[in-house]
Amino acid sequence: MRQIINFNAKWSFTKNANEVPCEINPKWDFVNLPHSWNNIDGQDGGNDYYRGTAYYAKKFDKMDLPQTDRYYLEIKGANSSADVYLNGKNLAHHDGGYSTWRVDLTDHLEMENLLVIAVDNSANQNVYPQVADFTFYGGLYRDVNLICVSHSHFDLDYFGGYGIQVTPTVCGDDAKVEVQVYLTNYKEGQKLVYTIYDKDEKVVATQETTETKAIFNLENVHLWHGRKDPYLYCCEVELVEDKVIDNVCTRFGCRTFKIDSENGFILNGEEYPLRGVSRHQDRWGLGNALLKEHHEEDIDLIMEMGATTIRLAHYQHDQYFYDLCDEKGLVIWAEIPYISQHMPTARENTISQMKELIVQNYNHASIVVWGLSNEITMKGDKDPDLLENHNILNDLCHQMDPTRLTTIAAVSPCSIESPYVQIPDVVSYNHYFGWYGGDTTMNGPWFDKFHKRWPNIPIGCSEYGCEALNWHTSKPVQGDYTEEYQAYYHEELIKQFFSRKYLWATHVWNMFDFGADARGEGGENGQNHKGLITFDRKYKKDSFYAYKAWLSSDPFVHLCGKRYVDRVEDVTKVTVYSNLPEVELFANGQSLGKKTAEDHFFYFDVPNVGKTHLVAVAGDFKDESYVNKVEVFNEAYRLKEKNAILNWFDITEVEGHFSLNDKIGDIMATLQGKLLFIGIFTKLMAKKDKSAMGGFEFGPEIMQMLGGFTVLRLTGMVSMIGVEFTKEQLLDINKKLNKIKKPKEKSKK
């Protein structure tokens, strides 16, 4: 009978060995798995985290193992390539840092054994990802197990799968459930016992046969219906030879779905809007080496927000998290890390990672689409090899899994006429109008344009968001990194996206702040701060509650701006979010009135005198905060970029003239401004580092997006692509801008 032994405890670890060790060095560190060696340097900025080979070594005695026929080492995540050595012999190599893989150790075991796993996250041209806006944490960051099985057993060798595949097909009130198993050394005289259990572990149906396929008809089937009713059955199959010698079991859900270009996502014949978030798997101080309780906390926070969907970006996530999604009823987009920069030398890696993704996740009821790639056309969409790679992946998905659809996350500048967007079944775009150029009003109309051009292609938004840290202002503007601008941005995007039912799914980027060691903006290097919740999961930003107001049915009220206490204005705007119809606000016990708001966003003007205790009341729920009148703006609320040559408040401004604080698009609308920036962008094109900033190149579409940036913000961001401006150069540009008059605004009649 199968036994699984956890191998997480007490590994010797080093980054300093020059060759595969034949003995454990007592000077090495002892670590327990899961473990990442980039949990600190991968989150502190500078893009200087260790990328190379590190070694994990463990001694064990065969006498301590159960007596059985075969011993498989199971590695659930080693980023990004790894080799397994047993007693000095190289037994296996694996490329791909996010999937499960196994190695048969049996024929190489001795009485005393030294197991070494060499893990390598160094740059190469054969394994994805290599260019992306997140940290590629090295390590054995998920569980490692030893699986002990008989000679005859359910397959453990095929792309990390589990030897069982369940395909339910709903037909009216019933469901046909086809169960296919895969066996190693299946012999005459052995038989298989198939059993299906309901959610209460009661037997629903059973079959005893010698066939590796069984078909069941479940009458009056209980459907898996998302968050409303995430009902799961369980299928167990036993391999019997006089007694049970191996068994496997998997949960599954019976549901129908389709994605309609006009009505969005349809679950079991009902419209079921997919409104949710994307999720990266890492955490502050841990990297990607998470425990079960971390996954549980993440899913609970996503459920609290009211999301119905998660895009699990940009790679295969932990099986435990997919299990949680099944249980909670969240609809999932699962994808491989084919991202940012197409590498002709890595086609086989995209294929093997896609096979692993599908084989290992086929039985999850929550998954409805396989993601082929993310922002892969950053350097253009005309590469025949890129297009062929996508056609191969698209066909592979349909061949391996005819029950699900394929999708892509297209980068914003990718033309809607691109042949790339014609490949998958459904399409989504990553748009940041209102953060990376443009403004918030551009988002909804862009999707209307796509929908009009391609009315039969379902379109969604796979990424949108903006960064927010603990900076604050009463006059939020694009690029200020304040919590107030993030809240404004998401209010606008919610109203635009949630009113367009044809959008098949929308995914906020991101649920949580995450590690991106190349980043150096917002005042805290090494992170992307677009999360609705901070990296440590300790603080829910105000924008989290904007979504909760729209998506959650659990009544609540939330006063925004709790971290923004000191305010200079005599009357200050206070925002309240609630999913209840009416909110009343009290200031020092005095009512400022009741308000209703169909959009769930309630705005109050509050007299700002002395210290004011605010209480928002909605139904039986209340929330409170404080504001305090000050004469001078509290500088602790103002972003000061680390290592910045200039901050915006240090810049000389001349009334009626431009400065570094003005938007590039406004400046280039004038002849003098256009001439000035021809020279500046020529410098960017000449000195850019093509490997940085996630692989973006300064083509015409990117240049158009940059119109929404202030000059200062752009010059700060391009430092990440190897272009540095000195203080003297910036002051010289500002001096030239101060001489260019702003066009007079035309009077409105």
Could you describe the 3D structure shown?
By secondary structure, the protein is an alpha+beta fold. The protein folds into 5 domains: 147 residues, Jelly Rolls, CATH 2.60.120.260; 89 residues, Immunoglobulin-like (Sandwich); 298 residues, Alpha-Beta Barrel (TIM Barrel); 69 residues, Immunoglobulin-like (Sandwich), CATH 2.60.40.10; 93 residues, no CATH class. The protein is built from 12 helices and 44 strands. The strands form 12 sheets. The chain has an 8-stranded parallel β-sheet, with helices on one face. Strand 7 and strand 8 form a beta hairpin. Helix 1 runs parallel beside helix 2 and helix 3 packs parallel to helix 4. The termini are far apart. About 1% of the residues have low confidence.
